Task: structure prediction
Amino acid sequence: MNEIPVIILDKRPSIWVTVLRAFLSVKTPYKNGDRVKKAIVAMKDNRLDETDFKDFLNICEIDNSPHVMIQYLYSNVYHYMMQVWLQKEFPLKPFGVLNTRTSMYLKRQISFGENFSIHCHNSDLRPVEKGLEVDMITEITSGEEKIYGSVTTYLLRGNYGSFDPQFQPPLWEKLTTISHEKQWFLKDQNNFRFGKLSGDTNPIHILSWYARMYGFRSKFSQPIRIISKCLELMLEGESDNREYRLAYFLKGPVYYNSMVTIKYKKINSSYDFEIYSEGNDRACIGGWVSLGE
Result:
């Protein structure tokens, strides 16, 4: 896969400029069978903002944490992931595609004041049975050390020619037994504030009329906000100062002003979970967490 010259940023991209460019960007048209170039976005000498982190905890209604959560790191790299979408040579726009699954790992904690680099790039486009998939791949490094990584998969529905029937995407296995269940109420507030913080300002999370254009009942929350609160409830009492792996699959929206339920089971240091939104008997999010020793 050919590469677009690496884009080196010296500060976090403006959320307002990102949103405007996302709506107005002119794209190279995609034709079935085209191979896309790899767009690489990087930022060196990055540091976590402690005030920003506290704001994240506050919006997600999470008690103060002495350690930086893996979900917060994801919200940091998301801003740079968006810049990959904005490259002219990349044929898809970030709005109108569905985030279907994400996996991430954290090998050690990052402290406030520590310098690190962020690196993001896209995979090639992958025709599948339901449309066209692409992965957004991110890493946080310190020198040669890989500290954090994530792979987020998006789907553009449609018919994009032949696909490889042998391709087997990661699958979510539904829970057959449940050992615990916890609930919390998702308020309809701080929606755009969280979008600015996390980089996910997709209007379906902020404007009900826009969400209804895509067939949803109304606006609904950014997935990482839901997962962050649910994992706090599920992992209560667990130390987060350890190696951490998280994977989740998005199956439906979690609407505001509704009760959210997380059902889970624990096996040793691993958790399998499902998240439900009030009024929906089917899980909206499912996944697993694995904690190191």
Notes: The chain has one domain: 7-291. DSSP finds six helices and twelve strands in the chain. The first strand starts at residue 7 and ends at 9.
